User: Which sequence fits this backbone?
């Protein structure tokens, strides 16, 4: 049973960037250990929630840019809450670069066991500010509360808490 649902227009920064990392590390999975160098390069549409202290799953959410329309306050539902940004464009770019650097370090550790040095360069091509409609739905099942986040543009589930499966022996 749905207990509560709220529509929020959350502010996001979309950082369009190319990142190139060069790293040097030690591969110890074989004997003797070997020093390796390699590169990681990728283009990103990196999403940053423009709010502080939130646990919104930005990595699990892909904003449907094809549904993007110009902002018109007359089209916003009466009960919806529009949240303003707490991060400016510079802070969002810095956060995106930190997160991409961390991702590249994680990817590098798949190729080497210890990283000796790593350098990452960025080419930020665009920075977009937009709001996305997100439904926060709380529901109750067997006297327990759960939450689901739904994309208001596509109605797709972004993240959902599920009741635990019942364990039964045959």
Assistant:
């Amino acid at each position: 049973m749905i207990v509560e649902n709220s529509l929020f227009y959350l502010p996001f920064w979309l950082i369009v960037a190319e990142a190139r990392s060069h790293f040097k590390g030690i591969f110890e999975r074989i004997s003797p250990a070997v020093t390796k160098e390699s590169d990681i390069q990728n283009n990103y549409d990196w999403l940053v929630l423009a709010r502080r202290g939130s646990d919104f799953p930005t990595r699990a959410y892909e904003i449907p840019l094809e549904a993007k329309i110009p902002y018109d306050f007359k089209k916003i539902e009466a009960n919806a809450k529009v949240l303003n940004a707490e991060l400016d464009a510079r802070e969002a770019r810095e956060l995106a670069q930190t997160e991409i650097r961390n991702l590249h370090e994680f990817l590098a550790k798949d190729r080497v066991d210890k990283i000796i040095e790593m350098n990452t360069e960025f080419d930020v091509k665009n920075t977009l500010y937009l709001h996305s409609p997100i439904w926060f739905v709380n529901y109750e099942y067997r006297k327990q509360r759960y939450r689901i986040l739904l994309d208001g543009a596509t109605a797709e589930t972004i993240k959902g808490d599920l009741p635990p499966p019942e364990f039964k022996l045959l």
